[in-house]
């Protein structure tokens, strides 16, 4: 493959684009910029630096579990795509997970560690453990020699500590010694667990992983979403009743519903449908309803981008615009386009292009690589919620998943970037 120029930044306003060579080269060029930017985060002392907009280490920033695991997952995809040095990044991250985040005293994986390897926050969160399973599964697909060890360990932790067997979904959070610290239950951790379960099914062939993901969808989409106009409340009580008044961390637990998560789940539903042999015909129907509602509620018609949260009636709660909902809208629209005429078609292609135009104009850093995580009302980079560029995970999937020929991840079919 010829080397690709890294200045491919324009999404054409009209004419054919989806599935064209220009489309492919645009996605590969941004993927190459992202991998080059985040490769600089490696810390020889262990783990990965958080990076500012220029790629410099943010001094004193803790290494959080979801960031470490997402680096492993993303560079495992990069390794499968032939990215130079990606295998080194995966190996470095796998060592950090086992030697820094893994709690050899109490089991499980602590939320954050300091730059010198000390525990900063020993909490055991379902959200973080979901990403450990995702990292282990992607590392296994990439052929890492320690993937089976990590996969076996995280599977046991989930089975014995986090999976609520009588409900068929995840409990939420514990102290380092696994004592209960709250009765909170949330959709976000379960959504990401379903993503990891699908990846684990692909990596191992074990149908138990797929069945558990389907059970999560039955509750949050088939029961809760269907009863609430296809909006998905984020927060629940211990007995899984909607807690509409709950508001926690403004990034991970904002009040209300999150259109970006509905886009994300629409893509995952289609992936699960495909992995299950396309027999569960209700999954594409649910995906289409989630996507349509998220687009109607979330798309900012005046400014572009996707608003962060609404209430259960669709009224705006937080008008903040972050990069990740746009990337998930891209992934959902791409999955729709791959699903055939009933879900795809000309309208979906227009929406897919619209999302990429917003991503390119508002969030992509065409010069330095990576995506700006948040913008203000004047479309300028903002830093209310994030410091620097937090991770590669959402945006690299927006580039790579549309290039896969099918709906499931089928990582062996990733395009090759080794000459980019």
From TrEMBL:
Keyword Isomerase among record annotations: yes
Keywords attached to this entry: Isomerase
Gene Ontology molecular function: isomerase activity
Pfam families in the record: GlcNAc_2-epim
Any one GO BP annotation for this protein: carbohydrate metabolic process
Superkingdom of this protein's organism: Bacteria
InterPro entries the UniProt entry points to: 6-hairpin_glycosidase_sf, 6hp_glycosidase-like_sf, AGE/CE
Family: Belongs to the N-acylglucosamine 2-epimerase family.
Name under which the protein is recorded: AGE family epimerase/isomerase
């Amino acid at each position: 493959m010829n080397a690709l120029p890294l200045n491919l930044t324009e999404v054409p306003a009209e004419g054919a684009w989806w599935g064209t060579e220009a489309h492919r080269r645009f996605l590969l060029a941004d993927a190459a910029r992202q991998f080059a930017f985040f490769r600089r985060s490696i810390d020889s002392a262990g783990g990965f630096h958080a990076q500012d907009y220029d790629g410099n280490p943010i001094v004193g920033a803790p290494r959080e579990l979801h960031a470490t695991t997402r680096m492993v997952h993303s560079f495992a995809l990069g390794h499968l795509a032939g990215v130079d040095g990606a295998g080194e990044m995966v190996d470095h991250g796998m060592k950090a997970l086992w030697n820094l985040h893994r709690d050899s005293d109490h089991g499980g994986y602590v939320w954050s560690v300091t730059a010198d390897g000390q525990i900063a926050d020993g909490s055991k969160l379902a959200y973080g453990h979901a990403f450990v399973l995702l990292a282990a599964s992607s590392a296994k697909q990439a052929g890492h020699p320690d993937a089976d060890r990590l996969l076996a360990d995280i599977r046991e932790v989930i089975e014995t500590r986090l999976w609520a067997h009588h409900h068929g979904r995840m409990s939420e959070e514990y102290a380092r010694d696994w004592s209960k610290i709250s009765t909170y239950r949330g959709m976000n951790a379960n959504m990401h667990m379903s993503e990891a379960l699908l990846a684990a099914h692909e990596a191992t062939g074990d149908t138990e992983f797929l069945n558990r993901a389907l059970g999560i969808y039955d509750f949050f989409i088939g029961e809760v979403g269907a009863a609430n106009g296809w909006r998905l409340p984020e927060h629940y009580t211990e007995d899984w009743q909607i807690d509409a008044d709950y508001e926690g961390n403004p990034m991970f637990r904002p009040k209300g519903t999150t259109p970006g998560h509905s886009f994300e789940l629409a893509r995952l539903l289609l992936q699960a449908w495909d992995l299950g042999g396309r027999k569960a015909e209700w999954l594409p129907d649910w995906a289409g309803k989630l996507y349509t509602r998220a687009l109607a509620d979330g798309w900012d018609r005046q400014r572009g981008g996707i608003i962060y949260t609404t209430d259960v009636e669709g009224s705006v709660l937080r008008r903040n615009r972050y990069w990740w909902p746009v990337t998930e809208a891209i992934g959902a629209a791409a999955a729709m386009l791959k699903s055939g005429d009933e879900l795809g078609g000309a309208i979906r292609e227009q929406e897919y292009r619209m999302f990429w135009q917003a991503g390119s104009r508002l969030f992509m850093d065409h010069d330095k690589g990576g995506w700006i995580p948040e913008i203000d009302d004047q479309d300028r980079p903002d830093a209310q919620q994030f410091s620097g560029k937090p991770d590669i995970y959402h945006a690299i999937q927006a580039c790579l998943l549309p290039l896969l020929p099918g709906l499931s991840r089928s990582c062996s079919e990733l395009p090759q970037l080794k000459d980019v």
